[in-house]
Design brief:
The protein is an alpha+beta fold and about 100 residues long. It has one domain: Rossmann fold (3-Layer(aba) Sandwich), CATH 3.40.50. Helix content is about 15%, strand content about 15%. It has one helix and four strands, in the order ββββα. It has a four-stranded antiparallel sheet with strand order 1-2-3-4. The radius of gyration is 15 Å and the shape is globular.
Length: about 100
Amino acid sequence: MRIKDMFFFSIDTFDDYGFLSNRSEEEQISGTRIKPSEIKKNQKDFVLWKPSTGDTPGWDSPWGFGRPGWHLECSAMAKKYLGKTLDIHGGGSDLLFSTP
């Protein structure tokens, strides 16, 4: 969805959002680590593409001059530099998203 020249992934379009954490959307708490956004429809939505201004890097795209949100940046770098498969090791409850 597009809001103010930014493109967001709407978690409402993904029925199983949160299944990796074994927590339903209702059990996830927004705004505990990051200040809530005034422009998001759902605080758990995340940026897919945002405009670049000033000295921030950017590229021409069908959505305007900009750059990917950090979720896409991280996944693209992981695929490029770490390969097609990646083992993720975690275990602490402090690693759960939006832990109060």
